[in-house]
Amino acid sequence: MTEQEWLACTDPQKMLEHLGDRASARKLRLFAVACCRKIWHLLPDQACRKAAQIAEGFAEGKAGISPLREVEGAGAFYHDHREDVPEERLGYYAGGAIFQLGQERLASDLVADAASNAVACSTLDAGGGRLAVDAARHGEAAAQCHLLRDIVGNPFRPISIAPACLTPQVVALAQAAYDLREMPAGTLDAFRIAVLADALEEAGCDNADLLNHLRGPGPHVRGCWAVDLILGKQ
After folding, report:
1. Residues 102, 213: one domain?
2. What is the mean pLDDT of residues 141-167?
3. pTM for this entry
4. For 157, which DSSP code?
5. Please, which pLDDT band fits residue 83 given cuts at 50, 70 and 90?
């Protein structure tokens, strides 16, 4: 995959394959959580929503293996039902995404695929035809690619930041943006991110890729490479 292909890709499976083991387990799980938060309204029950929050805590080192088993259990009922049962087709995919999220050895590509299929099934249940269903599935996959680029950045252009730019104000703003999100989507507040970009530039940062990403349209989610870079997270 070339840099231009990476930037234009609409298939998260290809991007994840290209990344290989260059992305940390934390980054990959946060991507999977972001895919599930994006279909929050399609998750079949409150247990699945709670499970997504637990999985996010596990990625951040705030939950151990036992809570992760709770995530797996929350999606197990839906995962065990076959997609050929019409009334449970949506629940199968949406709950199946949560089930995959609860695996200790996470396959984030399976979570993304299940989430895309859940969106497609929702379109079908709403009366959409074949073209509309395919468009919904592909649109969701493309949106997931934006999330993945926000989390892992551009692997063809690794970026560092001068320690002098990491002033107390910059770090505090980054931490606030990281902590105070818009729920349930889990997106970072665009205004806080823009203020962070201004403070970073005032501190002497002149890296256009970094500043442009923070000032870009987003969406930005937990694990955003630019915020992680400031906070020293991998």
Report:
1. no
2. 96
3. 0.93
4. S
5. low
Residue that is written with structure tokens 């994006």 in the block: 38
Radius of gyration of the chain (CA): 18
211 & 141 share domain: no
Query: Do 105 and 31 contact (CB within 8 A), yes or no?
Result: no
Place of tokens 């996010």: 56
Do 170 and 125 fall into the same domain? no
pLDDT confidence of residue 155: 94
Instruction: Kindly state the tokens that stand for 92.
Output: 């199968």
| Strand positions, DSSP E, the chain | 181-182, 187-188
Token reading at 145: 């690619």
**Comparing C-alpha atoms, which of 215, 136, 218 is closest to residue 185?**
218
Task: Looking at the structure, tell me whether residues 120 and 43 fall in a common domain.
Answer: yes
Average pLDDT over residues 25-46: 95
Distance CA 181, CA 209 (A): 23
Residue 172 falls inside a structural domain: yes
> 158 in a domain, yes or no?
no
* pLDDT confidence bin for 86, thresholds 50/70/90: low
Residue range(s) defining the domain that contains residue 192: 163-231
- How does pLDDT run across 95-114, given as a tens digit for each residue? 999 999 999 889 999 999 99
